[in-house]
Design a protein that fits this description.
Order of helices and strands: HHHHHH
Number of helices: 6
Oligomer: single chain
Number of domains: 2
Strand content: under 5%
Length: 211
């Protein structure tokens, strides 16, 4: 191949390469149909909407919690009223009768504590953990155990009150039934504690295996 033919052949190859590069750059241009960002189908938007509804439905629980707070306010009003009414009667009450009244007040306080525990613990477990109060950070398992133990304490106070005021075979029959109920509640509380222990133990082992 002589020099003119070689130069002509080189020019043809260069022109071909330039044409190929132009086609490639055009095909990868942002506005080219092959590289337009895919549009999310309507089904994905519907799924996203349903997920937002489902995962934000937790805020409706605030209605129940605020209702418990309102009832707790009424309970506090009734408690204050009973305390005020007790003072005029205290002079005529014996030590035993006053002890029974004190147990009633302690029982009232424990019920108030139980309502508070349910409201704050449930809010943390089921609504939002971003409240910034570390002392209220309890898991759902710990919440169940605290609620069950609070109920046991309330039942214990009721049993003690019935024991102090017990008289006659009918009362003792009722106390045996109350003891049976207390025993079942105690077993339930122990079972919840064991389940929570196994759950935490499993999470610790799983976390250790991951690392």
């Amino acid at each position: 191949m002589n020099a003119p033919q070689h130069a002509e052949h080189a020019q043809v190859e260069q022109a071909h390469d330039s044409h190929t590069q132009d086609e490639t750059s055009h095909s990868f241009a942002p506005g080219h149909p092959e590289h337009v960002a895919p549009v999310a189908p309507a089904s994905n938007k519907a799924v996203k909407f349903v997920e937002n509804v489902l995962f934000n439905v937790r805020w409706t629980l605030l209605v129940f919690y605020l209702g418990l707070v309102a009832v707790l306010g009424l309970y506090a009003f009734a408690f204050v009223k009973e305390v005020i009414e007790l003072f005029p009667q205290a002079i005529r009450l014996s030590a035993l009768a006053l002890k029974v009244e004190i147990l009633d007040f302690v029982d009232t306080v424990m019920v108030g504590n139980l309502v508070k525990l349910i409201v704050t613990g449930s809010y943390h477990s089921f609504v939002s953990k971003a409240h910034g109060r570390a002392n209220e950070a309890v898991s759902s398992g710990q919440l169940k155990i605290k609620i069950s133990t609070s109920i046991l304490v309330i039942c214990s106070i009721a049993l003690l009150r019935n024991f102090i005021t017990a008289s006659g075979p009918t009362i003792w029959d009722q106390m045996l039934k109350d003891l049976a109920i207390f025993g079942m509640l105690l077993v339930c509380s122990l079972v919840l504690s064991v389940i929570e222990y196994l759950h935490v133990k499993g999470e610790v082992l799983e976390h250790g295996m991951d690392h």
